[in-house]
């Protein structure tokens, strides 16, 4: 009941607070090199839910996404068992995006599942809760740090020698939003891995060439940050008639 059958999450009201798509953001997707057919073959899917490159990337990056992670309590070993478990725990997550509130989403999901369960008139009990919640974060790509990041990837740094794609990849890094809020500065995430690194899975990896190039990118990035114009110093707020301390 969580999925509509058309690639959308079927929880009422879930999409109401999603940030609207702007023309500037659309242009970013248009510039990204991405082959849907190659992607389909890599993930070994018989078909993709969305027909165009832009739609595929947007539903991977800028719209909320539902993931099913497992069922605990049911028999999962090889073979056939007729045992009925007394308790089953289903695990899923919803990646939220800018303007969505995790507390509101939790309430929407709970009310939806409880309503569906009530219609079944089951004598069993249902409990829905969120194990972990975090607010969404998206970078400000107009920040000077992104100017330095682009230069670190481009020609002259002997790293990749090309204009980098600006992507919005879902990730579980809640500390990023806290860092930005506490220090009051922009945050830039520089990738060093590949699309097939399978993070958080049993076969997670980082290719050595990506690790080596990542070191070069970080070194080039720090150099480019040093070339950025300095921010203007804060003005003195003391009495202008009083000479500065020596």
From TrEMBL:
Q: What keywords are annotated for this sequence in UniProt?
A: Hydrolase, Metal-binding, Protease
Look up keyword Iron and say if it applies: no
Gene3D superfamilies in the record: 3.30.70.360
Q: Does the keyword Nucleotide-binding apply?
A: no
| Any Pfam family hit | M20_dimer
GO CC terms in record: cytosol
GO BP: proteolysis
Q: Which GO terms describe its molecular function?
A: dipeptidase activity; metal ion binding
Which top-rank group of organisms is this from? Eukaryota
Q: Which InterPro entries match?
A: Cyt/Met_Dipeptidase, Peptidase_M20_dimer
Domain Peptidase M20 dimerisation residues, every copy: 44-118
* Name listed for the protein in its UniProt record: Peptidase M20 dimerisation domain-containing protein
Query: What species does this protein belong to?
Result: Petromyzon marinus (Sea lamprey)
Task: Identify the taxonomic lineage of the organism of origin.
Answer: Eukaryota, Metazoa, Chordata, Craniata, Vertebrata
């Amino acid at each position: 009941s969580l999925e509509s059958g058309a690639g959308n999450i079927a929880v009422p009201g879930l999409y109401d607070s999603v940030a609207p798509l702007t023309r500037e953001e659309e242009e970013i997707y248009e510039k990204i090199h991405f082959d849907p057919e190659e992607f389909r073959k890599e993930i070994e899917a018989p078909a993709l839910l969305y027909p165009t490159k832009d739609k595929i990337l947007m539903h991977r990056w800028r719209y909320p996404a539902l993931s099913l992670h497992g069922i605990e309590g049911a028999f999962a070993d090889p073979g056939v068992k007729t045992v009925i478990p007394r308790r089953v725990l289903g695990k899923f997550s919803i990646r939220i995006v800018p303007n969505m509130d995790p507390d509101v989403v939790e309430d929407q999901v709970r009310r939806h599942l409880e309503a569906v369960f009530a219609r079944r008139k089951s004598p069993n009990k249902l409990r829905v809760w969120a194990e972990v919640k975090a607010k969404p974060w998206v970078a400000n790509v107009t920040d000077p740090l992104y100017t330095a990041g682009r230069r670190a990837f481009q020609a002259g740094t002997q790293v990749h020698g090309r204009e980098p794609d600006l992507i919005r990849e879902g990730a579980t890094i809640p500390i990023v939003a806290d860092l930005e809020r506490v220090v009051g500065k922009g945050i830039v995430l520089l990738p060093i891995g590949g699309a097939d690194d399978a993070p958080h899975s049993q076969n997670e990896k980082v290719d050595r060439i990506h690790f080596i190039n990542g070191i070069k990118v970080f070194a080039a990035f720090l150099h480019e940050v040093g070339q950025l114009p300095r921010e203007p110093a804060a003005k003195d707020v003391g009495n202008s008639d009083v000479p500065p301390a020596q």
